[in-house]
Specification:
Blueprint: E1 3-11, E2 21-23, E3 28-30, H1 33-46, E4 50-55, H2 63-67, H3 71-80, E5 84-86, H4 96-105, E6 110-111, E7 115-117, E8 122-123, E9 128-133, E10 136-144, H5 147-151, E11 158-160, H6 164-177, E12 185-191, H7 194-203, E13 212-214, E14 226-228, E15 231-234, E16 242-251, E17 256-266, H8 276-293, E18 296-299, E19 304-305, H9 314-327, E20 331-335, E21 343-344, E22 347-349, H10 350-356, E23 363-369, H11 370-380, E24 393-394, E25 399-404, E26 409-415, E27 418-419, E28 425-431, H12 432-436, H13 438-442, H14 446-449, E29 456-459, H15 462-472, E30 484-487
Parallel strand pairs: 1-4, 4-5, 5-6, 10-12, 12-13, 13-15, 20-28, 25-30
Antiparallel strand pairs: 1-16, 2-3, 7-8, 7-11, 9-10, 14-15, 16-17, 18-22, 19-21, 20-24, 23-28, 23-29, 25-26, 26-27
Helix pairs in contact: 6-7, 9-15
Amino acid sequence: MKTKSFTILHSNDMHGDFLAEVQGAEGNLIGGLALLSSYINKVRQEEENVLYVISGDMLQGSMIDSEYRGISTIEIMNYLSPDVVTLGNHEVDYGLPHLLFLEKMANFPIVNANLYISKYNRRLMRPYVVLNVAGFDIMFIGIITEAVLQSLRTDQQIATFISLEDASQEVGKICNAYKGEDIDLTVLLTHIGFESDQELAALLRPEWGVDMIIGGHSHTILEQPALVDDILIAQAGTGTDQIGRFDIVVDDDTNSIVEWKWQLIPIDSSIAEPDEDLRRFIDSFKTEVDRKYNVVVCRFAQKLTHPRREEETALGNLFADIFAQRAQADAMFLGSGSIRGKELGPLVTLGDLRSIFAFDDTLFKLTVTGAQLKKIFSHIMRAENRNSEGECYQVNQGVKAVYLDASGELESLAIRGQPVMDDGGYTICLQGYHYTNSEPNLGLTDEELTAIHSPKVVTTSAQDVLEEHLRGIQNLSSKVEGRLVFKATP
């Protein structure tokens, strides 16, 4: 039996989390790429066969990233030198042409197997890469969430597989093509969420030889990997406060993992000294960004929080109220995932505001019937949507929706204290992403949304609306009010 030991380090959903934070009375540094780089380099020196991989969403979530439209992120990632990366849904936030530009900038392979140029049935990206490490061939295949299809829906040239069944067949197609080759280890780098990773693993045929799934998208923190049909499944939360580490032994004769150990390694100053060269490189971007964005917008009466995207939050309520007021809408549906941090204030700088609401978008105003409005709330409040992969919302003051988990039904819906009537007319405000992809996110087709009136553009920049509103009012306050209520029993 010929075996070889490997160490696979993995990150996902870094979202431009470049800078370390100071925590505790002793002032310990937590996270940040300078510490992460130092730990990766330490492992590379200590272990013989080390690979570092990233499972999507390097981009978005920080001012440094958004100001440079991801160019700064790719330059910094080049410094970290990952061995292979797969696409996440936020890699397309700056548009498809810009993604292809960023891919050319990268000194590392970016793999994705299921984005296609529709007309020619050709893959958009490199579907896989085979790395030879210590005489062993290791294949990495990239699979992405169907959210990318939604965000690229206006580009008719691009398509992707939208079901896990189709994605599994794509993996099989690639693995079958290599049956004559001696692939010792097969790893899927996915960005579809932890629950979907487990479903995908169950669909893969043993003959295809997939050994591991290293995923992202759902920001899942694990104590240990899942094991489905002998396929190890892991991811490493979000940001740079931690990194996943597999230490494995691979058998060359059976092309399988015969020993493994996994750890979620906290990245802090007790584990390594910061990489000063990388810190200076990041600071060169930060200095320019601070000069532009380190100006005070307003001060809140107290810190406002957004601890979980699946529930009503004080910060989410404030933002939803601002947008509803600007649109003069009965109901504002603000995607909870649009808020990219857990707290804001009391002092709010422009940089703080842009960092926590990083994804700018158009706001649309539409008119729906009461029956359609109830259908939307029934869709977004259902229990299966309130997980790390569902599309959840914050709503404005005056909305009161009560959902019964036991029966899976909307118990009541009121606007400004009045029950919503099925045949009544109600105005709603949506971000462009949710309007464009209304059926999967809201439960209504585009035809249903626009049956009464054509959509009206409220603003082409939701960021501008927030900034201008907050500049004019000081000492704002907001709290959780029970706008969305989930009842276990009637």
